[in-house]
Amino acid sequence: MSSPELDIQNLKVSFSTPRGKLTAVNGISFHLNRGETLALVGESGCGKTVSALSILRLLPEPPAEILSGKILFSGQNLLSLNAKALQDLRGRSISMIFQDPMTSLNPVLTIGEQMAETLLRHTAMNRQEALQKSADLFGRVELPSPEEKLKHYPHQLSGGMRQRVMIAMALACTPRVLIADEPTTALDVLIQAQILELLDNLKKDTGMSILIITHDLGVVAEIAQRVLVMYAGEIVESGPARALLNNPLHPYTKGLIASVPKLGTIKKTGARLEEISGNVPSLDQRPSGCAFHPRCAWAIEKCKTQKPELRQADAQRQWSCHLEPGSI
Fold first, then answer.
1. Which of 107, 202, 219, 257 is the most buried (most CB within 10 A)?
2. Is the pLDDT of residue 319 over 70?
């Protein structure tokens, strides 16, 4: 069996604050296989984006600090690389699509200048060649009138177009791994579907691996082969997407799936949408025992005092709960 494209082992990340050192990611481990789309899901504040930014060392250190773990890419621990080696790797071998393209793009530079910068940094192209390659990439991500778009500024493009620009920039050097942080946030459902189809087609064409971060289970069902569910900085369930969505083992996963609106259900019955009561705990108020127990309808006394271990349900699935599968 081939080694994974990306292998994260016992990653623990904290932030220094006036309230002390607070742990945002608490010892997570996972891998991303070659040619696979892996979804990292959970509510806001669960540690998804911090985990992703840690892979490329994009968190400001300080206040962030990676306390332990390994991030292995091609057998190399990215946590041991110096600043120059990391800059050479970012955008070339591992790329990232950030959550908000409007704030990720420079408002005073044209789209063409920003695209060309990536190619000039990582290839031997001259400026003219980089601009021509940029236009080709815009065409590849189905941006209309690509030659003309090179002259446009970010504010002149729609949200869907800006997202396509971000995807083109991320794919400019044909990376082996693409990290997509909420790539369809704030887009309407039609544009969202187009972006997801585009990412899936590009993955098939290039053979790259995708780590997609989202809170939208519809996106997960559409594009992912495997899913990791995060809560309070920890992975609470993982497994193949279809199996996990059809038969969730952890109460948190079950709550997330139940809260997805079902077409026509509310209109027919007049019932309220299901919800998970309460909120994700802040970093300095993590409950004892299982972090989810204050919000869990199935919590038992043991949940309040003992933290459950992440254990195997079968060869492909893991979950972290004191209750046995099928008991919720």
1. 219
2. yes
| H or E element, residue 269 | helix 265-269
Which range, of 76-90, 91-105, 115-129, averages the lowest pLDDT?
91-105
CA distance 6 to 177: 8
DSSP reduced 3-state for 90: strand
| Whole-angstrom distance, CA of residue 13 vs CA of residue 207 | 30
Q: Name the average pLDDT for the chain.
A: 87
pLDDT band at 146 (very low <50, low <70, confident <90, very high): confident
Say how far apart CA 207 and CA 35 lie, in whole Å. 5
Q: Is the pLDDT of residue 304 over 60?
A: yes
Q: What is the DSSP letter of 182?
A: S
CA-to-CA distance for 139 and 197, rounded, in angstroms? 15
Query: How sure is the predictor about 266, in pLDDT bands with cuts at 50, 70 and 90?
Result: low
Residue 191, pLDDT above cutoff 80: no
Asked if 63 and 15 touch (Cβ cutoff 8 Å), the reply is yes
Residue with tokens 């446009």: 152
CA 278 – CA 258 distance, rounded (Å): 15
pTM here is 0.88
Q: What is the DSSP string of 33-84?
A: -TT-EEEEE--TTSSHHHHHHHHTT-S-TTTEEEEEEEEEETTEEGGG--HH
- Is the torsion defined by CA of 216, 221, 223, 228 positive or negative? positive
3-state secondary structure of 183: coil
What DSSP state is assigned to residue 13? E
Instruction: Say whether pLDDT at 269 is over 80.
Output: no
pLDDT of residue 186: 65
What is the DSSP code (8-state) at residue 124?
S
Q: Are 214 and 220 in contact (CB under 8 A)?
A: yes
Q: CA 64: distance to chain centroid? A: 19
Picking from 298, 288, 285, 283, the residue whose alpha carbon sits closest to that of residue 251 is 298
Residues whose CB is less than 8 angstroms from the CB of residue 173 and which lie 6 or more positions away in sequence, other chains included:
91, 92, 95, 118, 119, 122, 123
